[in-house]
Amino acid sequence: MNTFKEVHGNRGGVDHEQKTLKLDEEAIRKAASADLDDGAVTPGYGPYRDSIVKLLNDALATELVCVLRYKRHYFTADGLESPAIAEEFLQHANEESAHADKIAERIVQLGGSPNFNPDSLSERSHADYDESTDLKAMVRANLVAERIAVETYRQMIELIGDKDPTTRRLLEGVLAEEEEHADELSDWLRR
């Protein structure tokens, strides 16, 4: 239980109101001592942990499908502008792979198991795999996937809110990079 203490003062003829926060030390120690095998996951995570792990596993599947799509497009891009676009695809693939690693790490921190099962990746992914051969179609497919990721992460952040601040901050960072990817791909489509 957090308690607030109001302190009033008069400095230099101006009234100042200062609020201080005081932690409930007893509750902290009790939560920290319970279920030590859970690592960083204290009882404060409450009933949402399993739901958050499921959301993260679906996001992990999405990131992995995006890596595969970008890698395919990187290796099969063909045309006058293909070297520059292919490099963009490779950069995005590597960044999506880094997102997947961060998400998998967070799943483990929450006591879950990251699901890398290739048999169910496309079913769990929010974005689609794509086998386009036309350069513009590749860019468009990747832009749609990035926009799906942006909306997915936005909704996840909203759902998680204060239930798990660490996961929320992780997702906010991933969201910022997905928005950047979408902007870059949008620029390519306008050329």
Task: Give a written overview of the molecule.
This is Bacterioferritin. One of its GO terms (biological process) is intracellular iron ion homeostasis. Keywords: Iron, Iron storage. Pfam families: Ferritin. GO terms for molecular function: ferric iron binding; ferroxidase activity; heme binding. There is one protein chain. The chain is mainly α and 191 residues long. The protein has one domain: Ferritin, core subunit, four-helix bundle (Ferritin, Up-down Bundle), CATH 1.20.1260.10. 63% of the residues lie in helices and 9% in strands. The chain contains six helices and two strands. It has helices at residues 25-33, 49-76, 82-109, 121-124, 135-160, 165-190; strands spanning 3-11, 14-22. It has a two-stranded antiparallel sheet. A hairpin with a 2-residue loop joins strand 1 and strand 2. Helix 3 packs antiparallel against helix 6 (165-190) and helix 5 (135-160) runs antiparallel to helix 6 (165-190). It is flat. It starts with a strand and ends with a helix.
Distance between the termini: 57 Å
Low-confidence stretches: 1-8
CATH top level class name: Mainly Alpha
* Helical percentage: 55-70%
Shape: flat
The main sheet orders its strands as: 1-2
The appropriate CATH architecture is Up-down Bundle
Q: What's the alpha carbon Rg, rounded to whole Å?
A: 22 Å
> How many independent structural domains?
1
Structural class: mainly alpha
Instruction: Estimate the strand proportion.
Output: 5-15%
Order of helices and strands: EEHHHHHH
Strand tally is: 2
CATH topology grouping: Ferritin
The CATH superfamily is Ferritin, core subunit, four-helix bundle
Mean pLDDT over all positions: 89
Taking the sheet with the most strands, its summary is: 2 strands, antiparallel
Helix segment tally? 6
